[in-house]
């Protein structure tokens, strides 16, 4: 661990930290970074999880547990002083899957944390979707009343409230769109069209978004392990932190920066009317295929896409967590594209 990092996160090397969702996009990146900082680490994984990406991480102990049933969760938490909860359901065919994968599973984890003695600190990675969209030109902050517009967002907000009600010392991070090396969902869904020089764009007005690079989110999660307020039991917005790079980008800006990152000219935009987005979501939900992986597009996702702005301010995270993003969108996309090329996923 460098002197700079020791000063930035004092005492982090003495922590014993359990990470749920450790085999996922964010989880693998976080576990590797924590291992480099000298933490004692436990990765909670499902019995069926592919642990290939965790191979070779020094000092990592794997705890097999199932948040869907609660099996093994108490044993996994035994002896840890911090739990970073990343596991969750991002895509689902039915609303009930979001409740099971985000709300109910978090309830089982929180119950196990509440039974531990002494109580571990819980760092809960939620989502901007739990707060809801912002108004154009007015990024959301933590005091803006929550108004989730999707089943995914409602399930994440309900998970936060479970932790609050249990009086477990909890810090909640609500990141916006996360991208970067290791992302197999968000950026890859736009790369084929970027290579062709075309991108879809909802009809005017221009949609506004905030983004956060996965390494910056990991830095915020690590900071929340050692500092930051926790949720008060009687409500209020204390203990909640919005996480982004602090900038606002138009959808066209994102598409142009992505084209630049892969070495393509500025894209041609194909306008997509809002009703067509909504109808596509309905058609995906009505698909007769009920097995296999969930579709990226559905009614829930369509409702999020139709919102005019998903932006947030990061003043509180800067003040309380000393959160200073290292990546703006151009550099962040360049790092992601370099990773895709290194993996043979881009020419």
TrEMBL record:
GO MF, one example: aldehyde dehydrogenase (NAD+) activity
Gene3D superfamilies recorded: NAD(P)-binding Rossmann-like Domain (3.40.50.720)
InterPro entries: Epimerase_deHydtase, NAD(P)-bd_dom_sf, NAD(P)-dependent_oxidoreduct
Signal peptide annotation: none
One Pfam family named in its UniProt record: Epimerase
Superkingdom field: Bacteria
SUPFAM superfamilies the UniProt entry points to: NAD(P)-binding Rossmann-fold domains
Gene Ontology CC annotation, any one: cytoplasm
Domain (NAD-dependent epimerase/dehydratase) ranges: 17-229
Entry-linked PANTHER family: NAD(P)-BINDING DOMAIN-CONTAINING PROTEIN-RELATED (PTHR48079:SF6), PROTEIN YEEZ (PTHR48079)
Protein name per UniProt: Short-chain dehydrogenase
Native organism: Micromonospora arborensis
């Amino acid at each position: 661990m460098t002197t700079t990092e020791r000063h930035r996160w004092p005492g982090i090397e003495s922590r014993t930290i359990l990470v749920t969702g450790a085999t996922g996009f964010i989880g693998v990146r976080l576990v590797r970074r924590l291992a480099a900082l000298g933490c004692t680490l436990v990765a909670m994984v499902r019995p069926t999880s592919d642990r290939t990406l965790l191979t070779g991480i020094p000092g990592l102990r794997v705890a097999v547990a199932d948040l869907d049933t609660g099996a093994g969760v108490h044993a996994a938490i035994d002896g840890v002083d911090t739990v970073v909860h990343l596991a969750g359901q991002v895509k689902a065919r039915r609303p009930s899957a979001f409740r099971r994968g985000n709300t109910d599973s978090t309830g089982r984890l929180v119950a196990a944390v509440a039974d531990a003695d002494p109580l571990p600190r819980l760092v809960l990675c939620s989502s901007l979707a739990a707060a809801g969209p912002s108004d154009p030109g007015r990024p959301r902050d933590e005091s803006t009343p929550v108004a989730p517009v999707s089943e995914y967002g409602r399930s994440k907000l309900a998970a936060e409230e479970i932790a609050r009600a249990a009086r477990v010392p909890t810090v909640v991070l609500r990141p916006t769109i996360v991208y970067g090396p290791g992302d197999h969902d968000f950026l890859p869904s736009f790369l084929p069209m970027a290579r062709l020089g075309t991108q879809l764009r909802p009809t005017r007005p221009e949609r506004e978004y905030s983004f956060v690079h996965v390494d910056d989110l990991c830095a915020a999660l690590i900071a929340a392990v050692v500092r930051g307020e926790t949720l008060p039991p009687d409500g209020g917005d204390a203990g909640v932190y919005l996480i982004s790079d602090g900038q606002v980008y138009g959808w066209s800006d994102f598409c142009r920066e992505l084209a630049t990152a892969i070495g393509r000219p500025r894209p041609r935009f194909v306008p997509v009317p809002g009703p067509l987005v909504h109808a596509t979501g309905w058609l995906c939900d009505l698909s007769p295929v009920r097995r296999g992986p969930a579709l990226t597009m559905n009614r829930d996702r369509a409702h999020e896409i139709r919102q005019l702005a998903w932006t947030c301010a990061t003043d509180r995270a800067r003040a309380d967590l000393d959160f200073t993003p290292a990546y703006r969108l151009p550099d962040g996309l360049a790092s992601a594209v370099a990773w895709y090329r290194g993996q043979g996923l881009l020419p």
